[in-house]
Amino acid sequence: MRKTLTTFCLSLGLVLAGSAQAAVDLSTLDAGMAGPRTQVLVLGSMHLSQMPDGFDPATLDPLLDRLAAFKPDIITIESIAGEGCDLMARHPAVYDPEGIAPYCSVPDAARVATGLDVPAAIAEVKRTLADWPAEPRDDQRRHLAALFLAAGDNASALTQWLQLPETARLAGDGLDDTLVAQLERAMEQNGEDYRIAARLAARLGLQRVYPTDDHTGDSYDVPGNDVEAYATAIRQAWDASAALHEPLIRRKQELIERGDMLGLYRYINSPEHLADHINGDFGAAMRHASPQHYGRMYVGGWETRNLRMVANIRATFVTRPGARVLSIVGATHKPWFDSLLGQMQGVEIVDPASVLGPPEG
Prior knowledge:
Elements: H1 2-20, E1 38-45, H2 61-70, E2 74-77, H3 82-89, H4 97-100, H5 108-114, H6 118-130, H7 138-150, H8 154-162, H9 177-188, H10 192-204, E3 210-211, H11 227-240, H12 242-257, H13 261-268, H14 271-287, H15 294-316, E4 324-330, H16 334-341, E5 347-349, H17 352-356
Parallel strand pairs: 1-4, 1-5, 2-3, 2-4
Helix pairs in contact: 5-7, 6-7, 7-8, 8-10, 11-14, 12-14, 14-15, 15-16
């Protein structure tokens, strides 16, 4: 009995000692790494689709000039990849079709034009890019644009379209008149995927952008299905922090009204703005008291989404150590992206102020 008790106490002591150990410090694991660090610039963005009437896209030119000077090799965007949309569509019991509809457009027109469903189109994109020439012909660009549309990657399709001479932007090679019209509309749409990412990629001679958004992590069932109570709790949290948000909103509106988009992006990427912004959103949710802890559910879904988005971004440069990566995402994501990507081995987070210049004041 005594031996058994002694053995138990010894085992318990080892368990407790193990639990008290400090976690392994990974921050210096890459100290002696071979080769240059991967440079990652997370650009917090406004959602340009919400710009007021009369927005002049030419006001983005100074911003695009600064980003072009950074010379990214990889550009990622806040859009769900075709395979992600295809996955969610196949599991309606897990992912509410109405909930994913705003993020996933079904590429029916491209499927009809190319004869390819999303998985087949993705496979063909991979095969085509694996054998892509240094100087592609116009017909090859048109064909790849059609494949990207069928794969559910509209921003990459526009990247190809923009690199065609205007006289070559016509139907053929998988593009029918409907798809040509879709691409022409995309050229005029206000959205950071098109106005910033695709245009910058085309300007730099890149063949695609990388959709890295995810809505599997924040697609969860509210306990008791009391969605209204959940929404009310989150609105209450936001209302309680209105004093934090109001000056931020006013400052952004001032910059938008004077057409200073470079100044706007400098401001929304500043640590001061980001700290107040997320404190008034997710900090407020964490402080909100409800028996169901709705605020913590909201933050939990948000953090799961960010973890999966960052994993998607990390995957884009696994085989390209030392690449320069530009990740364009809604500004609220930036603190999480910087923190999580900054923990990856061989990665250096680039200060936006070193690329865009510092904000006023």
